[in-house]
Amino acid sequence: MKKIKSSERKIKSSRIIVYTIMILYGAICLYPVIWMGFYSLKNNEEIFVTNPFGPPMIPQWGNYIKAVTQFDILLYFKNSIWVSLAAMFLGILFCLMFTYVVSRVRVRTTKALHSMVIAGMFIPIQAVMTPLVVMVKNLHLTNTLWSLIVPYVALSFPFGVMVLYGFYRSLPIELEESAYMEGAGFCKTYFRIILPQMKSAVSVLIIYQFISHWNEFSLALILITKNELKTLPLGLAGFYGQFSTDWGPVGAALVIASFPVIILYVFFSNKVSDAMAFSGMKN
């Protein structure tokens, strides 16, 4: 009995230690987000002198009004939403079509195509910036939002193929064969049977591609020069210079820019967990 009680005490103490570490880690991860919210509701004196880390003494809700009225954040927000959603939708669509073919058609050509696309992940973006600028100019897309959408789709394509390929290969081909035997055509088989099985993988791509497009800065800096076409990262970069003495509206703009990413992750986080669990079981 004494041995059992001592082992139970050890288990309880180890659990307490693990839970304490997890709580501390969670607090460390969450505090920057909470601090950004505090930061957006303070004036310069609180931010730098009297209260840099705690909640605001008197919330300055006017910072959000200044961020919207004195700065074209809604225009930049609209541009970022359009570019991110369009590039994400087209990128996932092309990845689904291409990966389905290379995972189901077993010939040397498809294997070579798959390897070539995956190799694109190892090419740094700096190496293709000059060709991209030339391509955009030749396609007459300069200073249009499509000058960002087309490169974003191409640059996110290898990662999307890598994620979807394993999921497609894990699906038994007997699912499609049985559907064909029942008289279903290709489109009905794909959209009714195959695509619903890919929800977890598609959710991973939705989060990854949207966040990468939403935060992208270097290509937008090179390809976009008109103020009315700037995305949020470009607009925020100009915001620092223009309002360098009033940091409250800067924090408010950062909070507004973070909303879509947070909302997207809340909606799709469960699917991402399912995809990770499925990948672990498969491996």
Describe the protein in words.
This protein is an all-alpha fold. It is built from 13 helices and no strands. Helix 7 runs antiparallel to helix 10 and helix 10 runs antiparallel to helix 13. The longest helix has 38 residues.
Helix coverage percent: over 70%
The count of domains is: 2
Could you give me the name of the CATH homologous superfamily of the largest domain?
MetI-like
- CATH topology call of the largest domain: MetI-like fold
Total DSSP helices: 13
**Tertiary shape:** globular
Rg from alpha-carbon coordinates = 24 Å
Structural class: mainly alpha
Distance between the termini: 41 Å
SSE order, as H and E? HHHHHHHHHHHHH
Q: What is the annotated CATH architecture of the largest domain?
A: Orthogonal Bundle
Number of beta-strand segments = 0
Features:
0% strand, globular, MetI-like fold, 2 domains
How would you summarize the topology of this molecule?
Blueprint: H1 2-39, H2 44-50, H3 62-69, H4 73-104, H5 108-119, H6 129-138, H7 146-170, H8 174-181, H9 186-194, H10 199-215, H11 218-223, H12 232-242, H13 247-282
